[in-house]
Structures are given as C-alpha cells and as structure tokens.
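I hope you will forgive my troubling you with a question about protein structure. The matter concerns a single protein, recorded as an amino acid sequence and a row of backbone structure tokens. Please examine both parts with care and let me know of anything in them that strikes you as inconsistent. Thank you for your consideration; the sequence and its tokens are set out here:
***
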Amino acid sequence: VQLQASGGGLVQAGGSLRLSCAASRSIFGVERMAWYRQVSGHQRELVALITSGGTRNYADSVKGRFTISGDNAKTTVFLQMNSLKREDTGVYLCNVEAGYRAFWGQGTLVTVSS
C-alpha cells in the first residue's frame, strides 16, 4: 500500500493550502491518521492527528489555523492550513497507523514566503 500526498506549493504568508493524502487501496483497521512536518536539520514534528474515533490533536503552533479531517473507509486524510506563516514551511508527510503497521507518504513541500 502506498500513500500519495499532494497539495503543497508556494504561498504567501497569510494564505491557505489544503493537503490531501490517499492510499493506493483502503487499509483495514486504521487507528489514526496524521500529518508530520520535516524541516532540514530538525526532528520530524507531529502537526496534527485524527483517530478512528474522530479525536483530533494539534501541535500548539498550528492550533486554530489548521484542521485535519479524514475518511477511514477510504483511507484519505486532509489538512486544511489557513493563516500560513513562514515557520510552517517544510515537507509535510502523511502517516497512517493500523495496529502494528505504519504507512508513510512521500511528502509534499510547503513553502511560505513573507
């Protein structure tokens, strides 16, 4: 199973982007789906996650600006990013966990200019 992320790009500060991630086929037993951010020279950071029960958690830096949503049955996950800031720049990777299995997408680059 492969995860394909899309929706990244170059945007001015204050703008919006919507990231999408879809699995090549539905994954059974999804427990949570998440987006991480990778910046060169820094540890991979959890940005947002959504559990199979609908619980959402966000990094403090994005609360109130980003919204995660998803469809477990279709194994798709989205990240609506509003009021973007320069510090939101990075490669965004989607992640799906189902029991002991973890799946990662290839990442989509988000660049926020001032």
In short: The chain has a mean pLDDT of 96. The radius of gyration is 13 Å. The longest strand covers residues 90-98.
